[in-house]
UniProtKB/TrEMBL annotation:
This is ABC transporter ATP-binding protein. One of its GO terms (molecular function) is ATP binding. Keywords: ATP-binding, Cell membrane, Membrane, Nucleotide-binding, Transport. PANTHER family: DIPEPTIDE TRANSPORT ATP-BINDING PROTEIN DPPD (PTHR43297:SF2), OLIGOPEPTIDE TRANSPORT ATP-BINDING PROTEIN APPD (PTHR43297). Gene3D superfamilies: P-loop containing nucleotide triphosphate hydrolases. It is a peripheral membrane protein. Belongs to the ABC transporter superfamily. InterPro entries: AAA+_ATPase, ABC_Ni/Peptide_Import, ABC_transporter-like_ATP-bd, ABC_transporter-like_CS, Oligopep_ABC_C, P-loop_NTPase. It is found in: Cell membrane. Its main location: membrane. Residues 5-254 form the ABC transporter domain.
């Protein structure tokens, strides 16, 4: 396994108490594989990704436990200096908002080039040439000229490509893309996703794709991990999960999307509201919204049950759900 997150816990100390943002996340991605992470707003998708990358602000965040194994090494035990080196060269992150992720006072050529001067000790001139190459590769037209432009001179879609170029620069083993296309219009979204999928194939990278868009997931992901209240509630190969979800929350998400092949469709929330991370319900955190809930769900936290060799579900009654008896 390229990356394996095991029983990760992250909490935030806030004025109103402790927010339990990540409560035992376990997921993994192999080289050359795309894992989609799906879930409503506030379910802990980004905080988990930030913990993996080592970019959480500690405090207010605190890692309460767990492991982040990258090629077998637990990143949580490394010194910041070692983590920084891995973060630059071995794993990279693409954010939703390129404009705030890029430096407004540096040309994109200097920003991409800096990766090569800092990490590879290249001359400025060589680094500039590599920047142009990369911009070509992510299909930014007239790269040789545009390398001198500043971020604000690019359209949203082109800026996102600049960020992808930066993520690819040092040929990382893993890319985490946190809603990389949410801010773009539908056609550009599709182009950027196609590009990511193509590059992932070409480079054999692992890709973790955080998204709200079920249409995108069906097209590009190999596996899905569904998050709820800071836990993975179901994980499965994409097509198995679409055919027959093994968790009532996943079923609710799928039922709320009439056509899975419809690009750009956002997740509509399942009836009821996600729980407050400062006061999570006891037992299964989903029980107040669950059509299958019964007494045991209010008291016993469901473990992540093994449904098959490739599937897992954190529901006491996953069999019923698989049989299709859980209408949302
Ligand atoms: N700096 C912080 N201080 C306090 N709470 C935080 C902080 N950052 C995140 N949280 C809380 O952690 C929980 C998980 O947040 P996270 O950003 O991971 O959600 P998400 O699944 O990425 O949602 P979205 O789809 O909206 O991006 C939320 O309840 C959020 O309020
Ligand atoms: S454990 Fe109970 S409440 Fe939780 S998802 Fe399963 S049936 Fe619903
Ligand atoms: Mg997020």
């Amino acid at each position: 396994m390229l990356l394996e997150v095991r029983d990760l816990h992250v909490e935030f100390r806030t004025r109103d108490g402790i927010a339990h943002a990540v409560n035992g996340v376990t997921y993994g991605v192999d080289a050359g594989e795309t894992l989609a992470v799906l879930g409503e707003s506030g379910s802990g998708k980004s905080v988990t990704a930030q913990a993996v990358m080592g970019i959480l602000d500690i405090p207010p965040a605190r890692i309460g436990g767990g492991q982040v194994l990258f090629r077998g090494t637990d990143l949580l035990t490394l010194k910041e200096e070692q983590r920084r080196r891995i973060r630059g060269a071995r794993m990279a992150m693409i954010f939703q908002d390129a404009l705030s992720a890029l430096n407004p006072v540096l040309t994109v050529g200097d920003q991409i080039g800096e990766l090569f001067t800092v990490h590879r000790g290249m001359s400025r001139k060589d680094a500039r040439a590599r920047a142009v190459e990369l911009m070509d590769r992510v299909r930014i037209p007239a790269a040789a000229r545009r390398v001198r432009d500043y971020p604000h001179q690019f359209s949203g879609g082109m800026r996102q490509r600049v960020m992808i170029a930066m993520a690819l620069a040092l040929e990382p083993d893993l890319i985490i893309a946190d809603e990389p296309t949410t801010a773009l219009d539908v056609t550009v979204q599709a182009q950027v996703m196609d590009l990511l999928a193509e590059l992932r194939h070409a480079h054999g990278m692992g890709l973790i794709l955080i998204t709200h868009d079920l249409g995108v997931v069906a097209d590009v992901a190999d596996r899905i991990a569904v998050m709820y209240a800071g836990r993975i509630v179901e994980s499965a190969p994409v097509h198995d999960l679409y055919r027959a979800p093994a968790h009532p929350y996943t079923r609710g998400l799928l039922d709320s999307v009439p056509r899975l092949d419809h690009k750009g469709r956002q997740l509509r929330v399942v009836r009821g509201l996600p729980p407050n991370p400062r006061s999570l319900p006891p037992g299964c955190a989903f029980h107040p919204r669950c059509p299958l809930a019964r007494e045991v769900c209010r008291t016993d936290v469901p473990p992540l049950y093994e449904v098959s060799e490739t599937r897992a579900s954190a529901c006491h009654f996953w069999r019923e759900c698989l049989d299709g008896r859980a209408g949302a």
